[in-house]
Amino acid sequence: MGGLVIIVVVGFVALLAPYLAPFDPTETSLYSRLQPPNREHLLGTDGFGRDLLSRIIWGSRISLEVGIISVAIGVTFGLLLGVLAGYFGGFVDNVIMRFVDLLLCLPSILLAIAIVAVLGPGLRKVMAAVGITAIPRFARLSRASTLSIKQTDFVLAAKGIGCGNLHIMVKHVLPNILTPITVMATMGMADAIIMEAALSFLGIGVQPPNPTWGLILSEGRQYLRSAPWISTFAGLAIMFTVLGYNLLGDGLRDVLDPKFGKVRF
After folding, report:
1. How far apart are CA 68 and CA 248, in angstroms?
2. Spatial distance between the Cα atoms of 183 and 167, rounded to a whole number of angstroms
3. Which residues pair with 45 in a beta bridge?
4. DSSP symbol at 203
5. For the chain, what percentages of helix, strand and coil (3-state, to nearest 5) are there?
6. DSSP assignment of 148-191
7. Crossing angle of the two packed helices 229-256 and 52-88, in degrees rounded to 10
8. Which domains does the chain have, with CATH numbers?
9. Is it the case that residue 94 has pLDDT exceeding 60?
């Protein structure tokens, strides 16, 4: 429930960013640069005099957008590949899973860096890169779940009465493997937000002057001693959002999987 509260709050902040942000997040002012938190600028200003609170509020939009789109890409293609591999097995399984193993050869962050290096920086490129790195996890999970489901009596009965493969996968297999996929997708949002922040921090993600939490962290590195609030508040925004998704994922696992017992509030 705590994770759900955090995610709802962050979602409302992102949705109402134009009304909640007290300043234009890209407006610079040399007279206001590096101001500590005060009455006018509640979280202070950065090296260009931009209001930090406004940039963090607008940055939540980009972080959630990247998280949602990239996880949607990972779930869509991962689910498709995993169900096909698990249901048909044999040659199809070998080809698909060797491709998945190829994607798993590199750590996710290195794979994302390589993809962005090829495609170039930008918001859409980051979404694609993070989404591609998420495909293997969803593919392996959906394959394992499909292998278990296709041996059940109701699937065998559907085959016995002449149902086609597509009908069985859509009507019988897919609905019964969505529970673990939903839990992993929730936790995948946290991974996607961290990945986007890392790419922006390295300068190959979303480009300035767009306000993203990773970019704010990167810009605050040179002011860690003189203006530590820049990196501190951006880091706290990332930490609490990721914590919220992880807590929510744990809660969904307890609710949706009876093997984990009852949820304790």
Report:
1. 15
2. 25
3. 51
4. T
5. 75, 0, 25
6. HHTTSHHHHHHHHTT--HHHHIIIIIGGGSHHHHHHHHHHHHHH
7. 30
8. 2-16+41-258 (1.10.3720.10)
9. yes
Lookup result for tokens 């002012």: 29
Rounded distance, CA 248 to CA 252, Å?
6
Could you tell me the pTM of the whole model?
0.85
22-48 pLDDT tens trace: 999 888 888 888 889 998 889 999 988
Structure tokens at 221: 């590195």
Residue 265's pLDDT band (cuts 50, 70, 90): very low
Letter for the amino acid at 36?
A: P
Q: Work out the burial of residue 73: count CB atoms within 10 Å of its CB; fewer than 13 is exposed, 13-18 middle, 19 or more buried.
A: buried
With tokens 């101001």, the residue in question is 35
Which residues, 6+ apart, have CB-to-CB distance to 94 below 8 Å?
A: none
Spatial separation of the C-alpha atoms in residues 112 and 119, rounded to whole Å: 10
